[in-house]
Amino acid sequence: MTVFKFALKRSFSNIANLVFLTLFPVACIFLPRGEEWPFLPYGYQYFGIIILFIGIRLAAIILEDREKGVVKRLAVAPISHFNYLSQNLLAYSVILILQCAIVVYGGVLFGQELYQPGWLFLLYVSFSFASLAIALAWISIYRKKDVAFLIYMSLIFIVVVLGGLIIPVEMFPDLLKRMAVILPTYWLGQGLNWVVFGEEILDFLIINGVLWLYTIVFVVIGSTRKI
Amino acid sequence: MRVLSTIKFTALRMIRNYIVLILLLVVPIILITFFSFILSGVVTENGVPYINENAMIMVLVFQLFGGSIVMYLIYHDLFTENKMRMYALPFNQTMYAFSIMLCGALYSILLGILLMVYSQFVLGVIWKNWFWMIYIISLMAILSIIVCLIFTFSVKNYKIAERLSELYGVGFVVLAGLFFPLPRNAIFDFLGSYGNPLTLSMGAIRDMSLTNTSSAWFQANILLGVIAILFMVMLLLGRRRIG
Amino acid sequence: MTIASIQGVVKRYGAHLVLDYIDLDIYEGEIIGLLGPNGAGKTTLIQTLTGITSFERGKIEIFGQSKNPFSNQNKERIGLVTQGITVFEELTAKENLQFFAGVYGLRGEEKKKRVEEALEFVGLGDKGNKTPNKFSGGMKRRLNIACALTHRPKLLIMDEPTVGIDPQSRNYILEAVKKLRENGTTILYTTHYMEEVQAIASRVVIMDQGQIIKQGTVDELIQMVQHEEKVKIDVTDSDKVPVNELENIAGVKKVVVSGNQITIISAFDSGNLDRIITLVKEHAGVLGIQADKPNLEDVFLTLTGKELRDKEEA
């Protein structure tokens, strides 16, 4: 598990990552509630945005390995590409799951009204995996870490707005409502609404199912590029 | 002046940086368009259509990030290995840095104007006072460039300077209360009004559209004053780094 | 005529003495090969000569000017080829040259002509409209050189211009350097590659630990330092080698037998090779001969030591 251990170390090795991985998630716990919308406190509505940023920052470590030629060196070492990738992804998943736990249960301790914190935690975990998978697929089409990150940042702005995390989907015109369905942020938004209002567990399972579908599809796409 | 001959190439380098174009033109166009669909027909408490207000906010918000390209070019040309070649050239390196700043400001202002043109002619947003709007955009662009350069000159690690410049942009957007309401106390109130370039510029434009010219000029002059002070700071720090 | 003169220059970075009373004159029309291990001070010397770095003591005179040697007027006559590739990635090769030509005061048709000339000179005539990120390493290095040539400098300073490129590109660059000298350009050329210095330099300057320790032509340096010649002979049966008889040949200092190879060390220019080979052939059967004449590498290693010294140059 050498790659796993070093992936964890490297994830916290620079200041920007440290801030993203520690301060920002913790700050989410303390943000206030909205009056009519969102139904959860602002921090929990926007935590999805932070998960998207964290996903690309972590996955970009793999891109850095590719950029610097470390992946070529590993290609002739006795470790398969699958092993290398899975250990990295495992490390990033551990970090993200830990953060989801801190944000959700920190909020419970702080006294935020989270309705169904257990299901909320599960939803965030599913979204975290989807975010990581999308980031992995994204970096597979780039050679340079900085370029990949900057363009992904633009994409995050758009996906977050069009997915209904900044403005409720109900306000969208019909066409945009239909288009929003293809975005993972839409499903996160629906999941957050379910945590507040939902009754049927099947609805929640469908939401998580879609997020896991994103995960599987994008992991497959992202794993195809080796060197 | 030899430096003048470099301006064309600085402009080319800026225009060819497609990442900056995506971040400062394409993304705001998509967001302005999206919001215009959602907010059509809705008006503010002053009777102004929300799409006007929203377009104004978007144009100004993205000016907060306009300093990034100037920061990148000055760092790349005068602080990395390239500096050896640049310092061996028969021209004034400080003037070269100023020429990059000038180009960057014009570029950022141009992008702002393009957004205004797009929103007016494609989405029907009404800009009451084009000259005033362009003036405020210019102030925001110049301020953003100066702040980014202060970070570049004062911090040794360029990556940290980049993150600080992003924090400047995102930070003032958050402090303006655009994402979520902030606690009501003296500090946040100040940072959400007179201590925030975004709210100052938004206020200046709103007041001018309501013909409240004295208040509009007051807010614009605060921005101008901050620019003048920070310009001195930047000169001081820059002299130490560039020489 | 002296193009540039460095007299007693001292440069420190904190407590670390990087240039230690350097004296160096650069004469018109010569190619100076500046050799030295990592951390010797070569790049710092170049930086002080071009005014990029200040110095604490001493005097630098360039084109006869000592009061203001780094004036724009002088800079117009100097070209610098940096060790790293310092071109603009966003501009095409032609635009890169136009940028530098413009800074050097070239305008209009003259600028256009010089840009084309420089591109042709480095073999990138048909690549002018491509950006450097599409170039190979060798092509980037050639563009890096071209950027210093548009203004036809009188003094061209080249800081390890062939690092990391293939032999064909390196050869091309060396030929270009020779051509520049024929056209009247004076060149200061730093490198780690001895064969480059031997191929092009009219004078060699060896630096170490901030000092110039030796300078002269290649032949002068070799003669100054080395007093021995080495012959290595591979034999069929080393037991039959007449070691005593070999040691008695005039000029032979030492005979070393190692496996089936014998090494005979003689005084420099002793002219005993024929006698040695004849004797060995008679007794032991010769399979192969290698005669080592001292070269610049031997001079360099003798003067600067064989150990690795991982000093960083500031």
Structure description:
The complex is a heterotrimer of chains A (227), B (243) and C (314). Chain A has ten helices and no strands. With 227 residues, chain A is mainly α. Chain A has one domain (2-222). In chain A, α6 (117-139) packs parallel to α10 (201-223). By secondary structure, chain B is mostly helical. The longest helix of chain B is centred in the C-terminal third of the chain and has 30 residues, at 213-242. The mean pLDDT of chain B is 92. Chain C is an alpha/beta fold. In chain C, the strands form three sheets. A six-stranded mixed beta sheet of chain C has the order 5-6-7-3-8-9, sandwiched between helices. Classes of the chains: A mainly alpha (227), B mainly alpha (243), C alpha/beta (314). Chains in contact: A-B, B-C. At the B-C interface, α1 and α5 of B face α2 and α3 of C.
Summary tags:
heterotrimer, B: 243 residues, mainly alpha, 11 helices, globular, C: 314 residues, alpha/beta, six-stranded mixed sheet, four-stranded antiparallel sheet, 13 strands
Explain the layout of strands and helices.
The complex is a heterotrimer of chains A (227), B (243) and C (314).
Chain A: H1 2-11, H2 15-29, H3 42-68, H4 70-75, H5 81-110, H6 117-139, H7 145-162, H8 174-180, H9 184-197, H10 201-223
Chain B: H1 4-15, H2 18-38, H3 50-63, H4 68-78, H5 82-87, H6 93-121, H7 130-154, H8 158-175, H9 186-191, H10 197-209, H11 213-242
Chain C: E1 2-13, E2 16-27, E3 31-35, H1 42-49, E4 57-62, H2 72-75, E5 78-81, H3 93-103, H4 108-121, H5 137-146, E6 155-159, H6 167-182, E7 186-190, H7 194-200, E8 203-208, E9 211-216, H8 218-225, E10 228-235, H9 243-247, E11 252-258, E12 261-267, H10 273-283, E13 286-292, H11 296-304
Parallel strand pairs in C: 3-7, 3-8, 5-6, 6-7
Antiparallel strand pairs in C: 1-2, 1-4, 8-9, 10-12, 10-13, 11-12
Short structural description:
Chain A has 227 residues and is an all-alpha fold.
Report the major sheet of chain B.
none
Distance between the termini of chain C: 32 Å
First-residue to last-residue Cα separation of chain B: 20 Å
Percentage beta strand of chain C: 25-35%
- Could you tell me the number of beta strands of chain B? 0
- Count of individual beta strands of chain C: 13
Give the low-pLDDT segments of chain C.
none
Order of helices and strands of chain C: EEEHEHEHHHEHEHEEHEHEEHEH
What percentage of the residues of chain B does DSSP assign to strands (E)? under 5%
| Shape estimate of chain C | elongated
Helix content of chain B: over 70%
> Which oligomeric state applies?
heterotrimer
What Rg of chain B do the Cα atoms give? 19 Å
Structural class of chain C: alpha/beta
Structural class of chain B: mainly alpha
Number of helices, where a helix is a run of at least 4 consecutive DSSP H or I residues of chain C: 11
The strands making up the biggest β-sheet of chain C line up spatially as: 5-6-7-3-8-9
Biggest interface, chains and residues, is:
B-C, 18 and 26 residues
The main pleated sheet of chain C reads as: 6 strands, mixed
